[in-house]
TrEMBL record:
Family listed: Belongs to the peptidase S16 family.
Binding site for ATP: 404-411
A biological process from GO: protein quality control for misfolded or incompletely synthesized proteins
UniProt-listed PROSITE patterns: LON_N, LON_PROTEOLYTIC, LON_SER
Native source species: Bison bison bison (North American plains bison)
Domain Lon proteolytic stretches: 680-866
Superkingdom, natural source: Eukaryota
Name of the protein in its database record: Lon protease homolog 2, peroxisomal
Self-association and partners: Interacts with PEX5. Interacts with TYSND1. May interact with enzymes involved in beta-oxidation of fatty acids, including ACOX1/AOX.
């Protein structure tokens, strides 16, 4: 038999410093490379090298860092002269000291073969190496430090291609056999059906004995410190002696684990055997403790609730099917919790539970009148529903939609309706909802599925005939998850909602007894199909008189209660309330008015609290005498000004009366002043009326002309419809210039000849659009070219045609209220809008003079003092004669 020569590793090896673990010969390890030196090593040796030797590395654990602190004057030159690898860092607290960090390489390392290299640039450049240990080596000298360390090494283990196993057994003797016995015992305690365990059992017989300590140490549960001790054990005998206690410790741990698992399996079998016995042996008249055990079982209780619930037959079948699946399902399955939550929701839903309506019409009328002032049309519709409900018990709930500006009480009316009927109330905010699953729910196949807001609301109120308020239905969104407005079609259709199917329930639920009330600021953004399913009830803004009544009936008492005041401490006359409405607010509702009243109450609360403090201070005789003697202690007989102020500042007289001067002190100068007459002090200005989702508003239109090329400029963020109205107005005036004797600056009847016209709509930051500004633009341009002033107390609205006809527009009531708030006296409206005047309150109709017009001629005659008559020329008069 020929002699076998050992395999030698290179005498110089690049050193790979590892922080994650210890690599032993014969074992494989993955390590992450992210330091600068290790990255340079991988790029230079592994990625660019072609020979086998270039893939052999020296792996050493980087486990020790020595911190040396010394003065700069001591030993500094000595360390620099030795060429040792170190890093220098200065401590800001001790500038006279230097800290040297020496990376001390472990004396023994493992020569390894790089099997695989995987790199990535995220989140920072790094590599992952798969390395296999070959043999031990000892570092003799570090010959190079940069760009990566290279050391001169000495091989400690022999690497033979065909090791002599018999010779090794003879040398180790009993120690080798003892180690082999413990190794076989450890492997046989594992599950041999696992392929990796079976392979390890075969390797115990085929691998040389001297390689087993390193391999088994890397497999069993050991610390890095213990692995370093095994790596440092160069002698084979010493290595066996250190590894045997580790094997014994692992064997004892496995025995304890197997014993614990056996006890747990026995307990589980006992529980599984007992639970069916409890259910089978339960009979009527059993002992009380057996009943308590059954009640404590959640599944049994859930099954009992399903049996006693009054849900429809279809829903009952689904629940029975699901409870059978739940009984066969282990609790560790994720579907167990989903099924249980579904069944709990099914039994909690009010399938047949409802409240009894209070059908006293007189009591309902009184309650609505007490809660809300005005809103006659809305209260009339609620009383009609009550009357029909009294005559017919199975009336389906109507679908009402309150449309009006913010702050007019749409949401509070819905709450009052529920209170009047004696029903439960639930509000669903739809503003910004862009997922149809919010309405119909998620299917139970999705993770985190839940029912929609309709079913969830029914679960919350606990009855099947509540009042649902769908708030801000005009602000629904649309996204990739569907259109919630389309999902509402089934909910708000009286012919379909008796069979509403939520995706989560997947069974029909009857919504026909629910009274749905939707609120919106405008109907323009509501889809036509959804709008068609609702009964629209307009809720316009309040008049000044209505706001005064609302303030003194509801807002002021509420603010007094919130701020701890009483009517004996503060009085707000109606004149003051009118000043707040006209000079500090400009809105259709009463929210800003409520905030201003709150500011007044806070200011009065400060005065009242200060007065109580001063009264308590003056009632103390010792304090009063001390403050009275204080003046005599000052030099030159001068008194303390602070004391004088304290003595003179007596508590305010009660009640505190809020007048205009108090308003100015509390709220500041008026925010809105009547500037109408000032704005119309020159030709080319007219007042129009506009409708916005916030209510009616007055709108000024200004025009000017200058020399140019006949261009028309429009500013003020105008929409396309309003731009077209401007072009219509200028075209009509140009075609009727001779009739009204309108000329440009040069006296020509062609109004745009060498003339540019600029139309501006103030409040340029507000987007404006709509056809109702046509008559205002025509009047403004007629004033500009005629040089006559438009009446300062007149406002107008209406759409025009190219032939000068005035067409009807919407929002007449809101526009009339805006003119009334602005203090105007005359309002010009289209003749076909005359029927809308009936909706305007009587006091507003009494204060305003409404003039109907069917053509622009009538508009111009009403807008100017003395009318806008035709100025006849002499030639025209002679021809007529």
């Amino acid at each position: 038999m020929s002699s076998v020569s050992p395999i030698q590793i290179p005498s110089r090896l690049p050193l790979l410093l590892t922080h994650e673990g210890v690599l032993l010969p014969g074992s494989t390890m993955r390590t992450s490379v992210d330091s600068a030196r290790n990255l340079q090593l991988v790029r230079s040796r592994l990625l660019k090298g072609t020979s086998l030797q270039s893939t052999i590395l020296g792996v050493t654990p980087n486990t020790e860092v020595i911190h040396l602190h010394f003065r700069c004057s001591l030993l500094f030159d000595e360390f620099l002269g030795k060429g040792k690898p170190f890093e220098v860092s200065f401590c800001p607290a001790y500038r006279a000291f230097v800290t040297l960090l020496f990376c001390v390489f472990f004396r023994i390392g493992t020569a390894a073969l790089a099997v695989q290299v995987v790199g990535s640039n995220w989140p920072k450049p790094h590599y992952t190496l798969l390395i296999t240990g070959l043999c031990r080596f000892q570092i003799i000298q570090v010959v190079k430090e940069k760009p990566y360390p290279v050391a001169e090494v000495e091989q400690l283990d022999r690497l033979e291609e065909f090791p002599n196993t018999c010779k090794t057994r003879e040398e180790l003797g009993e120690l080798s056999e003892q180690f082999y016995k413990y190794a076989v015992q450890l492997v046989e305690m594992l599950d041999m059906s696992v392929p990796a365990v079976a392979k390890l059992r075969r390797l115990l017989d085929s691998l040389p004995r001297e390689a087993l300590p390193d391999i088994l140490t890397s497999i069993i549960r050991t610390s890095n410190k213990e692995k370093l001790q095994i790596l440092d054990a160069v002698s084979l005998e010493e290595r066996f002696k250190m590894t045997i206690p580790l094997l014994v410790r692992q064997i004892e741990g496995l025995k304890l684990l197997q014993k614990t698992r056996k006890h747990k399996q026995d307990d589980d079998k006992r529980v599984i055997a007992i639970r069916p016995m409890r259910r089978i042996t339960h009979v009527p008249g059993a002992l009380a403790d057996e009943d308590e055990d059954e009640d404590n079982d959640d599944i049994v209780m859930l099954e009992k609730k399903i049996r006693t619930s009054s849900m429809p037959e279809q829903a009952h079948k689904v629940c029975v099917k699901e409870i059978k699946r739940l009984k066969k399902m282990p609790q560790s399955m994720p579907e167990y919790a989903l099924t249980r939550n579904y069944l709990e929701l099914m039994v909690e839903l009010p399938w047949n539970k409802s409240t009894t309506d209070r059908l006293d019409i007189r009591a309902a009328r009184v309650l609505l009148d007490n809660d809300h002032y005005a809103m006659e049309k809305l209260k009339k519709r609620v009383l009609e529903y009550l009357a029909v409900r009294q005559l017919k018990n199975n009336l389906k709930g109507p679908i009402l939609c309150f449309v009006g500006p913010p702050g007019v009480g749409k949401t509070s009316v819905g709450r009052s309706v529920a209170k009047t009927l004696g029903r439960e109330f639930h509000r669903i905010a739809l503003g910004g909802v862009c997922d149809q699953s919010d309405i119909r729910g998620h299917r139970r196949t999705y993770v985190g599925s839940m029912p929609g807001r309709i079913i969830n609301g029914l679960k919350t109120v606990g009855v099947n005939n509540p009042v649902f308020l769908l708030d801000e239905v005009d602000k629904l969104g649309k996204s990739l998850q569907g259109d919630p407005a389309a999902a509402l079609l089934e909910v708000l259709d009286p012919e379909q909602n008796h069979n509403f199917t939520d995706h989560y329930l997947n069974v029909a639920f009857d919504l026909s007894q629910v009274l749905f009330i939707a609120t919106a600021n405008t109907t323009a953004s509501i889809p036509p199909a959804l709008l068609d399913r609702m009964e629209i009830i307009q809720v316009p803004g309040y008049t000044q008189e209505e706001k005064i009544e609302i303030a003194h009936r509801h807002l002021i008492p509420k603010q007094l209660e919130q701020h701890g005041l009483t009517p004996q401490q503060i009085q707000i006359p109606q004149v003051t309330t009118l000043d707040i409405i006209t000079r500090y607010t400009r809105e259709a509702g009463v929210r800003s008015l409520d905030r201003k009243l709150g500011a007044i109450c806070r200011a009065v609360a400060v005065k009242v609290a200060e007065g109580q403090h001063r009264e308590a201070k003056l009632d103390r005789p010792d304090v009063a005498e001390g403050e009275g003697c204080k003046e005599h202690l000052l030099e030159d007989g001068k008194s303390d000004p602070v004391s004088d102020t304290t003595d003179l500042a007596l508590p305010p007289e009660m009640p505190i009366l809020i007048d205009f001067h108090a308003l100015k002190d509390i709220l500041g100068p008026p925010m809105y002043e009547m500037e109408v007459s000032e704005r119309l002090s020159q030709p080319g200005v007219a007042i129009g009326l506009a409708w916005t989702p916030l209510g009616g508003e007055i709108m000024f239109v200004e025009a000017s002309r200058m020399d140019g090329e006949g261009q028309l400029t429009l500013t003020g963020q105008l929409g396309n419809v309003m731009k077209e109205s401007a072009h219509l107005a200028i075209s009509w005036l140009r075609s009727n210039a001779k009739k009204y004797h309108l000329t440009n600056a040069s006296g020509s009847f062609d109004l745009l000849e060498n003339t540019d016209i600029h139309l501006h709509f103030p409040a340029g930051a507000v987007t404006k659009d709509g056809p109702s500004a046509g008559v205002t633009i025509a009047t403004c341009l007629a004033s500009l070219f005629s040089g006559r002033l438009v009446r300062s107390d007149v406002a107008m609205t209406g759409e025009i045609t190219l032939r000068g006809l005035v067409l009807p527009v919407g929002g007449i009531k809101d526009k009339a209220l805006a003119a009334h708030r602005a203090g105007l006296k005359r309002v010009i409206i289209p003749q076909r809008n005359e029927k809308d005047l009936e909706e305007i309150p009587a006091n507003v109709r009494q204060d305003l003079s409404f003039i109907t017009a069917s053509c622009l001629d009538e508009v111009l005659n009403a807008a100017f003092d003395g009318g806008f008559t035709v100025k006849a020329r002499p030639g025209l008069l002679n021809s007529k004669l």
